[in-house]
Amino acid sequence: MDKEERKTINQGQEDEMEVYGYNVSRWKLAFVSLGVVCTGGFLLLLLYWMPEWRVKATCIRAAIKDCEVVLLRTTDEFRMWFCAKIRLLSLETHPFSSPKSLANKVSNGHAVHLIETPTEENRHEMSKYSQTQSQQIRYFSHHSVKYFWNDTLHNFDFLKGLDEGVSCTSIYEKHSAGLTKGMHAYRKLLYGVNEITVKVPSVFKLLIKEVLNPFYVFQLCSVILWCTDEYYYYALAIVIMSIVSIVSSLYSIRKQYIMLHDMVAAHSTVRVSVCRVNEEIEEIFSTELVPGDVMVIPLNGTVMPCDAVLINGTCIVNESMLTGESVPVTKTNLPNPSVDMKGNELYSPEIHKRHTLFCGTTVIQTRFYTGELVKAIVVRTGFSTSKGQLVRSILYPKPTDFKLYRDAYLFLLCLVAVAGIGFIYTIINSILNKVEVGVIIIKSLDIITITVPPALPAAMTAGIVYAQRRLRKIGIFCISPQRINICGQLNLICFDKTGTLTEDGLDLWGIQRVENTRFLLPEENICNEMLVKSQFVACMATCHSLTKIEGVLSGDPLDLKMFEAIGWILEEATEEETALHNRIMPTVVRPLKQLLSESTPAADQEMELFELPAIYEIGIVRQFPFSSALQRMSVVARVLGDKKMDAYMKGAPEVIASLCKPETVPADFEKVLEDYTKQGFRVIALAHRKLESKLTWHKVQNVNRDTIENNMSFMGLIIMQNKLKQETPAVLEDLHKANIRTVMVTGDNMLTAVSVARDCGMILPQDKVIIAEALPPKDGKVAKINWHYADTLTQCSNSSAIDSEAIPIKLAHDSLEDLQVVRYHFAMNGKSFSVILEHFQDLVPKLMLHGTVFARMAPDQKTQLVEALQNVDYYVGMCGDGANDCGALKRAHGGISLSELEASVASPFTSRTPSISCVPNLIREGRAALMTSFCVFKFMALYSIIQYFSVTLLYSILSNLGDFQFLFIDLAIILVVVFTMSLNPAWKELVAQKPPSGLISGTLLFSVLSQIIICVGFQSLGFFWVKHQPWYEMWHPQSDACNSSSSLNWNSSHFDNETEPDAYNIENYENTTLFFISSFQYLIVAIAFSKGKPFRQPCYKNYFFVASVIILYVVILFIMLHPVASIDQVLQIVCIPDQWRITLLIIVLVNALVSIMMEESVDRWGKCCLSWVLSCRKKIPKAKYMYLAQELLVDPEWPPKPQTTTEAKAFFKENGSCQIITIT
């Protein structure tokens, strides 16, 4: 039965959840309603906070197939609960098509392949589904995704578009004709409206949600209790603080929603043209699009309202929303499998991204064949699109687990337990002394509000608010203030490379041509007469994806730099010219006239100018766009007037060399390439080939790129320089000094990334670099990793590759000491990373421990990397500048965006200055905020215990603190101290010492406990010592302890003003003694806990705090040593002898001395004692990465030796175990 009742949806994905079925029970509902009435609505609040309890209290378990409510629980470490109501989608009322066929298909989970007429097969299949007889489909919505009941799977599943399980063949054969109006209407019914809606909640809704926070509910209860006890002033203060806190919170939450709404709604609704089955074109709103619609891309471009695959024509698209690069990308139509002979290939938006137009990206221009429109088939709509998934990840973020907050709740539970003891003690003591029931209830509840201070949330928030303000001053904006504390714990930072560590663009350093299979010397000036006619320059002029947008040349920055370096002109055919021809008009490139030889006689000048274009203009006939999977691009071009066409190719040097005739590649190719990459240059290789004369213009338009890209002649190298930003090395050095690890995550080439890592100091010159090249299982062989050692020192570049690979191993394995000295780093690309994640799970933590360079990483792989690092207990920061970093920026503990575009919406922090110098600043402020939180929490805990103990001692003699005594302590002392002690700015530099991550740490607990014992001890001393004074008696209005006429006058006048005796027994010697001692104790612990170095500026530099403490000390000393009748009357203080006042001053001074010395001792020797105790016990480190580091120190097989292979065991693949095989 239980197996029937629990299902798993989104299996194996990030949002995997367990589903439980429930039906509403009327008797349970009635019982809960009664409970709500009896508890005055408190039960309703409890059920509001706990969805699991709410469902279980009002419903009974039912089969998921027939349930009315589903209870969902995430399967991650947070195990969060959600509930959703089952809804019914009725299909029988619709006038179009066959509802039975539709319901049947949805039940099968194939809504995208709906057919219009019910066949016998469909009618037969329909009998399998009980739900289809009523033509109602059951579904529920969770986090903007609809999950429909699938009778075949016996589970709920979300409705998929054309992005899964559809072959490229069927895209052309079944979907390219478009939909009928009937089919469109049905799909719209299922898929819903094509829009990414971010509803901005009303202020009232947000207010209710905020006010129902457990802390605010507790504050409300406290305020009601204080009002019944006539304690109005502090109640009013707490109400004002809560209102300010709620208003600021509502403002920031609503601002965030509006920001996201504006980003999404900017182009949410546009008018689009779609093709119907009978070839008519219908104009509809983009909100009505469904998967399967054939959309016409307009000539002047548009913002894509959905994800669509291009089947006709070419588009130039700006994908900055997805990639962060404002570089136009050329999208070509999906290869037709009937031509390319890849009929079985499944369409995937990721694999075929060069043919997919993504939602939110801007189509700048289209190019087309005569008479044929540029068409794309809609594959995903709404929240299923790439943009929709990004918005969903922002709307429903995964909670970030942070030890401080877990410990804070644990600490509060301890305070609640202490309050419980006081509560029971108060009740028993009051009953024994025959106190009235009403007074017992108020007193016993009051002890809870004393122990768990309602001002705690406001006090804890103060430090974060101040830190946020300081961050804003240095140009760092924060949309998630709670993350500031977490940033204080960051011990690993991932950096994007381009635009983050290095400058955005690339500069052309020079070229190195090949002649007679030998490299010539590097050349800097390419724009000269000697080279203008060469194939090398022709390749640079034609092999690119540049286009003119509004007369301005734009495209990939690398292509732009190359084209600008040769000084040629690019001309494109106009729309009118294109329409006249039966083919795409070629883009033409030609050199400037002054570059050509001017040796011809002046008389023939006109003739020469007429002939020049025929010789020196090159038309680009066909373009094969750059593919990151192939790491190359190529073009077919023809010099006007030539009979044969030319093929030009450029790309990654290793790839280009492998596609060239071996005899054309220089023998020292690898060495030359290695020299450049080691120096951090980005190297691109060029190749050329004359095509056969039989390849006509029309044949070229349909030829496969593999036919063109082979048997080429190697022409040489282009060397590009990606300069480091000026501040990069210094910032990374600061982070290394502070023991913060740095990792590079880039989409760039591996060797370039390693080189940049060396240049910026991420990898030190003496460190080893091990490249992990993982290969997936193929042809029955298991997955394997080949380990290569990159050359370590630049000085070793002259030695052979074999020698340099053999050196590090001897060093690394001679002894344990050497292993600790010799540092090594792993480098890998995105493909290898994916293979390792899938097939070598037990190696992942080891690689995370020393992985420094991750090249060619896709956006989702960046997120997976952040998660893998978090899995070994690193606190991970991510610094990036593009929307391609969005997932990683959100998933990291602290994400810092250097761009104010889409990435800033996903990222908790955004820096106005696009420089990584914001990273150390953020960590410094995070550490300061974290230490402030600890100080405030410790202070508030001590405040609770001091006041709790004062009140408990006074309860023992049926007394209490007076209202104005409470008010003086709570308002004048506590609030002033809390809000000023949080003002300490951050320390000016990052230090290697790490702040504690949680409140439950040995030193911290010892500090709090020792201060509690000291304070309780001195309070008890005062309380019991006063009773042993010779002048002591049970106080009454005629008492004359002061023994002076002035005091008699004070007492008599005070007595005359009394209309009735002191009913609450406030005025007595014990009360006065405890009031003075406790008032000083609050200030003493505030000073003791206000830590400065190494994370915050010293306490004396916090001028507001110093001034507040001095003023408070003066005021309390004045009240204690120089009694003023009116003040004493308000505070309900009795007159005590001068001798006792001096005694109290001595008690307070000794208390201050002991407290501050104890706190200093804990700071100085606490850690030493604790580490000594732990070393005796040989405690295992808590953080997984530290434990792993200890293990690897004594592992003889780690790091892997050069030229070895690690293979996944075929039989035990599911647990990810592997073995190392040395290849000889």
TrEMBL record:
ATP-driven pump involved in endocytosis-dependent polyamine transport. Uses ATP as an energy source to transfer polyamine precursor putrescine from the endosomal compartment to the cytosol. The lineage of its organism: Eukaryota, Metazoa, Chordata, Craniata, Vertebrata. Keywords: ATP-binding, Endosome, Magnesium, Membrane, Metal-binding, Nucleotide-binding, Phosphoprotein, Translocase, Transmembrane, Transmembrane helix. It is found in: Early endosome membrane; Late endosome membrane; Recycling endosome membrane. Residues 272-394 form the P-type ATPase A domain. It is an enzyme of class 7 (translocase). The keyword RNA-binding does not apply. This is Polyamine-transporting ATPase 13A3. One of its GO terms (cellular component) is recycling endosome membrane. InterPro entries: ATPase_P-typ_cation-transptr_N, ATPase_P-typ_cyto_dom_N, ATPase_P-typ_P_site, ATPase_P-typ_TM_dom_sf, ATPase_P-typ_transduc_dom_A_sf, ATPase_P-type_domA, HAD-like_sf, HAD_sf. It comes from Chrysochloris asiatica (Cape golden mole). One of its GO terms (biological process) is intracellular calcium ion homeostasis.
